[in-house]
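> call design_seq(struct)
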C-alpha cells in the first residue's frame, strides 16, 4: 500500500511539474516571438528610412508639405529619438515627446511627458506615432484625448508615402 502512494505521489508530482514548466515555457516562447516580430519590423522600418534618405527625401519636408508646423512625437525610444534629431533645425517645432515611460526618458532640448498628462489644449497640429506595434490603439486614444483637430500620423506610413 505504501508503494502505491509513493508511485501515485511521484506520478502526480511529475504531472504537476510538467504543467507548470510547460506553461512557463509557452509564456516565454510567446514573449520572445513578440519581441522578435517587433525587432524585425523595427529593422525593416529602419532600412526603409535609410532608403528614403539615400533618395534625398526627408520626413521634415514631407511634414512641411502636409502643412505641419508644431509636432509632437509619440514613442521616444529608438525611432522617436532619431525622428527628433532629424526634425531639429528643419523649421518645424517639436513641441514635446510623449511616452508611457516619460519619467525615465531625458532628452536634451525636448519636453517628454506621459500621454496621460497631455493637456487637451496642447498647441500641436500633428502627432507622429513611432510606436508601430500599437498604432491603432494609440491613434484612438490620442483622438479621444485631444478633443480637437490634430493630425495623427504613423512614422511607418510617412516613410512608405515618401
Amino acid at each position: 500500500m505504501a508503494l502505491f502512494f509513493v508511485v501515485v505521489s511521484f506520478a502526480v508530482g511529475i504531472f504537476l511539474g510538467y504543467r507548470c514548466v510547460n506553461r512557463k515555457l509557452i509564456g516565454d516562447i510567446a514573449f520572445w516571438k513578440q519581441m522578435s516580430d517587433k525587432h524585425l519590423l523595427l529593422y525593416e522600418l529602419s532600412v526603409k528610412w535609410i532608403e528614403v534618405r539615400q533618395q534625398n527625401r526627408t520626413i521634415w519636408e514631407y511634414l512641411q508639405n502636409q502643412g505641419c508646423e508644431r509636432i509632437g512625437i509619440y514613442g521616444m525610444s529608438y525611432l522617436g529619438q532619431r525622428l527628433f534629431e532629424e526634425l531639429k533645425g528643419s523649421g518645424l517645432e517639436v513641441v514635446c515627446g510623449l511616452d508611457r515611460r516619460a519619467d525615465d526618458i531625458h532628452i536634451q532640448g525636448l519636453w517628454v511627458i506621459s500621454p496621460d498628462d497631455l493637456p487637451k489644449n496642447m498647441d500641436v497640429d500633428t502627432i507622429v506615432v513611432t510606436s508601430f506595434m500599437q498604432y491603432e490603439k494609440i491613434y484612438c486614444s490620442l483622438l479621444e484625448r485631444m478633443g480637437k483637430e490634430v493630425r495623427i500620423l504613423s512614422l511607418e506610413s510617412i516613410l512608405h508615402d515618401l
